[in-house]
């Protein structure tokens, strides 16, 4: 998303003053995905932050069987989003689940390999 795209989407929301002193306040509405693109440093960084957070709360993964169970749980949560009607899907929630899967894959690799 570039600056021109954002500027074209601005909507005047309030006007102040009169004549030469007139000012306008603008509103920009973003989807969760657009917000993430503009204000986050990307998916890999989100995965890394989530990995740090999860490591503070959970012990290391101890076996391939445990790893598989954890992965199946996270993939099932993503699957529930995938099988929703498109109009009901929430891209923000889908991205959160993918970040969870990404951190889990990284955690398993670090703990077991």
Features:
single chain, 113 residues, mainly alpha, 2 domains, 2 strands, 62% helix
Task: Explain the overall architecture.
This protein is mainly alpha-helical and 113 residues long. The protein contains 5 helices and 2 strands. It has helices at residues 3-8, 32-39, 43-57, 64-82, 91-112; strands at residues 11-16, 23-27. The protein has a two-stranded antiparallel ribbon with strand order 1-2.
Task: Chart the SSEs and their pairings.
Blueprint lengths: L2 H6 L2 E6 L6 E5 L4 H8 L3 H15 L6 H19 L8 H22 L1
Antiparallel strand pairs: 1-2
Summarize the structure.
The chain has 113 residues and is mainly α. The protein is 62% helix and 10% strand.
**What string, H for helix and E for strand, traces the elements in order?**
HEEHHHH
Distance between the termini: 39 Å
Oligomer: single chain
Approximate helicity band: 55-70%
SS summary, helix count: 5
Roughly what is the average pLDDT, rounded to an integer?
A: 87
Beta percentage is 5-15%
């Amino acid at each position: 998303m570039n600056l021109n795209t954002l500027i074209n989407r601005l909507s005047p929301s309030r006007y102040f003053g009169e004549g030469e002193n007139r000012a306008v306040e603008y509103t920009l509405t973003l989807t969760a995905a657009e917000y993430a693109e503009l204000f986050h440093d990307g998916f890999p960084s989100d995965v890394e932050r989530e990995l740090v957070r999860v490591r503070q709360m959970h012990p290391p993964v101890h076996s391939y069987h445990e790893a598989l169970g954890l992965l199946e749980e996270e993939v099932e949560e993503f699957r529930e989003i995938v099988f929703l009607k498109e109009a009901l899907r929430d891209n923000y929630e889908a991205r959160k689940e993918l970040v969870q899967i990404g951190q889990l894959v990284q955690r398993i690799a670090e703990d077991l390999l």
